[in-house]
Structures are given as C-alpha cells and as structure tokens.
Amino acid sequence: METTLQAIRAPKYKTKIVSDLLIGNHVSAYQLKKITGKESIDGSKIGYSPTDIRRIKVALYGIDENQKNKNRPPIINVRMAKGGTGKSLISANISSAFAMLGYKVLAIDGDPQASLTNILGVDSSAEDIVHIGHLMEQFDTKNTVSIKDALRPIYPGNMLDLIPADITMTQTDNWLISRLGRDLIFDRFVINTPDFFNQYDVIVIDSAPGTTLLSYNLMAACKTILAVAWLDRESVKAMNLLFSNIIEINRAYPDKKLDVEIVANGYHPSYRHCKEALSILAETYKDLMNENVIPHYSGFVRQQSFLTEESKGPLIEQEPNSVGGRVILELAKSLLTRYGITLSGFDENIKPNIR
Ligand SMILES: Nc1ncnc2c1ncn2[C@@H]1O[C@H](COP(=O)(O)OP(=O)(O)O)[C@@H](O)[C@H]1O
Ligand SMILES: [Mg+2]
C-alpha cells in the first residue's frame, strides 16, 4: 500500500543489539556490515534500522520475499476486562519489538482512549483520524475502503504502520448495533482485503476494557487473545470476566475455538500483593501463562509523557537494553512461536541454521 506520508521515526539499533535479534544464532559485526553494505568511515557506531534487520534475516536465511503471505497474518488482540492493566503499553512495545526483529507489523488502535496511537507518536486530539470503525463501516456499506486515509507509517518501509484511533470511535457501536452479522464484520474485512492485510507478518490490536460490539469484533477475528493481567487482587476477577466473553464467542461461533495467553504485568519484588496475585494466577491458569513477567519499571511511565520533548515512542525503541526493554523483547520472541508468526512464511524458530 503506497502512502505519501513520511514515517514518524526511524529507529536505529547498535551492532551489539542486532546480533542478538537472530533467534538461536549469533552474527558477527562483519557479516552485518557485509549484508547491509554499511561501513562507518569515521569509526562511529553503525545503526541498523528495522528494514536493515529484515534484510539481514532475508539474506542469512535465504528467504524468498516474493513469496507473498497467502494466509492472513496472525492477529494478537491485547485485551483485559479492566482498564489500566498495561494493554496499551504492551501493544505498543511488542509492535515495536516485532519490527525490531525484522517483522512487518500492522498496529490497530481499537480503543477510543487512543493510548496506543499516542504512544506510537500520533496526536489523536490534534489530527484528523480515520479509525478502524470507519474502515469497517466503509467495507460493510460501500464498495471502496480508503485504507490509505487511515494508515500512519510509524517506521519506514512498512515495518510498523498504525491504524490510529480517537474519541469518535465511541460511535462505532451505534452503527454496529443496526447491522446483521455484526460480530464478524472486522473478521470479514480482514479476510476480504488480502492485498492490504497480508503484506504484514503480524497484526497487533489494542482494545478498550469494556465489552462492546467493537471489542467483540476484534476478539472474534483472532485465535488467541493476549490477556494482560496487572498483578493485584482485581486481576483474577477481571480474568474471569474476560473468560466469560470468550466462552460466549465460542458458544456463538464454535469453529472459532478462541483461546488465551496471559501476560502478568507490573511485578515488583517488594510488594507482597504482586507475589500473591502472581501465584493465584499461575495456579488458576497454569497452562495459559506466558513465561515472561513484565516488571514494574519506571521507563514505561516515561514513555507515556506524550507531547513533551522526551516523548520518543515506546520504551523498547529507546532503551532496548533496559530491564523493561529486555523482558519485552523476550515476550515478543515467545509470541513468535505462540502465534506462529513468520517472516514472509519463514519460521526462524524451526529452521534457525544460517546458510
Ligand atoms: N510494567 C509497568 N511499569 C510501570 N508502569 C506501568 C507498567 N505497566 C503499565 N504502567 C502504567 O500504567 C498506566 C496504564 O497503562 P496502560 O498501558 O495505559 O493500561 P491499559 O491500556 O490497560 O488501560 C500507564 O500510565 C502506564 O505507564
Ligand atoms: Mg489502553
């Protein structure tokens, strides 16, 4: 999809970080330079962009990039039946982490609060926004959908694109309620628009906490919900509520077989309630817990200060080597396997040998 807009940021990563991004492999600085043709003449540090990292993987693994994804990419719908658990934070950071790993990412903001939109660097209050509700309505009622009016390139080369949100998305349910087949309009939109959606390796969707028709649409389009549980006493209750939504979808659409992966967020070793909540979750939902627990970390709060000088996108983009950044990267790597995310059809977890 051609868009005339400039990408908002162009992150670059140092050699040391990039050599860790090849799962199960180590690559020398020499190999990285050779593949990308990058040399620093003045001896300064070389920076590799997400596009460079993709190029490196394509070369090392011998991936045929022309072999377009025939199937729709895996969809990660980040959900919890409660606000303030870290959904937007995790959506933004895993989206950035996948791009950093060389995967093409479409991020969709499904919350009228527009936190994902703002963390990624689009000012939802000041700009004209075409959101996913608008696109679904165009798809359902007209012949053409103007995706390019909605799409915001965050990183160059379509490595991270965003369909943003703003407060007007609260209207989407008013329209959805009048439509027949209202739960599956988003699902049909994705299936019937392969030229656009299939160019990405993964789709990450942030959601509002409420059980709205829009949130049902977003859930019903994916296979595995990524539930973000904040580690306090409420988390188990909120988890049960989310489960009742999932049971309802599976009852209405038995072939969907929707399931859940749970990520615990906000762990702090000196708070006893964190440990309690984590052990209750682990006991109640043992097979569903992701092995990574996201720490309570001050860097995540800094990234929230949008519209200030220091706002520069998600933490992982700024401080990939920080405590928080490293856990996010591990989480993203684990999700590659969990969701079957491939690089143009190539699974680097299964065939990690470099040519
Ligand atoms: N692991 C964490 N460490 C520190 N602050 C966090 C963490 N996770 C979330 N927060 C903070 O909590 C608030 C709510 O997070 P957010 O991602 O907006 O939640 P949600 O999208 O679920 O409503 C934000 O201010 C965010 O910076
Ligand atoms: Mg949010």
Please name the CATH architecture of the largest domain: 3-Layer(aba) Sandwich
Radius of gyration: 20 Å
Number of strands: 10
Oligomeric state as shown: single chain
Please count the helical segments.
16
Report the portion of residues in β strands: 5-15%
Biggest sheet, in brief? 8 strands, mixed
Q: Which structural class matches the secondary elements?
A: alpha/beta
- Count of spatially separate domains: 2
The secondary-structure element order is EHHEHEHEHHHEEHHHEHEHEHEHHH
**CATH class assignment of the largest domain:** Alpha Beta
**Roughly what percent helix?**
25-40%
Which regions contain 5 or more consecutive residues with pLDDT less than 50? none
Summarize the structure.
The chain is α/β, with parallel strands linked by helices.
Give an overview in words.
This is Putative Cobyrinic acid a,c-diamide synthase. There is one protein chain. With 355 residues, the chain is an alpha/beta fold. The chain folds into 2 domains: 13-61, no CATH class; 75-339, P-loop containing nucleotide triphosphate hydrolases (Rossmann fold). Helix content is 39%, strand content 15%. It has 16 helices and 10 strands. The protein has helices at residues 15-18, 29-36, 50-61, 87-100, 115-120, 132-141, 147-150, 172-176, 185-191, 194-197, 213-220, 234-252, 272-284, 298-302, 315-318, 323-339; strands at 13-14, 47-48, 75-79, 105-110, 152-155, 160-163, 202-207, 224-230, 259-267, 289-295. It has an 8-stranded mixed sheet with strand order 5-6-4-7-3-8-9-10, sandwiched between helices. Strands 1-2 form a two-stranded antiparallel ribbon. Helix 4 packs across helix 16 (323-339). The radius of gyration is 20 Å and the shape is globular. The protein starts with 12 loop residues before the first strand and ends in a 16-residue tail after the last helix. The structure holds adenosine-5'-diphosphate and magnesium ion (MG). Adenosine-5'-diphosphate is lined by residues 83-89, 115, 265-266, 294, 296-297, 300-301, 304. Adenosine-5'-diphosphate binds next to helix 4, strand 9 and helix 14.
